[in-house]
Amino acid sequence: MRTHREPALLVYDGDCGFCTTAVRFAERRVRPRCRTVPWQEADLVTLGVTRERAEREVLWVTPDGTVRGGAQAVAAALLSAGGAWSVAGTLLRLPLLRRIADVVYRVVAANRHRLPGGTPACGVRGTVS
Question: Residue 13: what are its φ and ψ, rounded to 5°?
Fold first, then answer.
């Protein structure tokens, strides 16, 4: 368990060009209140997540150890940013939009090696099931 003084963590695939580009964009434009760390540099055991999960989806880990993955990790990051971004994060948590966001996230994750910034390394790992 992490301490409450630490910020949330956004854990992403640092070997994936698309993922890294998306996180850098978020840091510049969205400005979520968190630290970002590639899963390859994170202490996954301490965070309470498996390597397999970290390979297939972005993760939002709160200071109390709550882990959200995929579209809900994106929603949490948007909520943390405040302003108009938090409205988008709130919408992604509504039941119908949540289901749609989850499907869209899985499609993007499964095809990230084909997206701008993606590399063949992005498609090597398991995709979201």
Answer: -85, 105
Is residue 128 assigned to a domain? no
Torsion of CA 49, 55, 57, 61, to 10 degrees: 30
Residues 43-78 have pLDDT tens digits of: 999 999 999 999 999 999 999 999 999 999 999 999
Provide the residue range defining the domain that includes 24. Answer: 8-123
**Residue 128 · residue 56 · CB < 8 Å:** yes
Give the span between the Cα atoms of 3 and 88, in whole angstroms. 28
Angstrom CA distances, 30 to 16, 22, 74, 76, 122, stand at 20, 11, 11, 12, 23
Looking at residue 70, its pLDDT comes to 97
pTM for the complete prediction? 0.87
Which SS3 state, helix, strand or coil, does residue 39 take? helix
- 32 within a domain of the structure (yes/no): yes
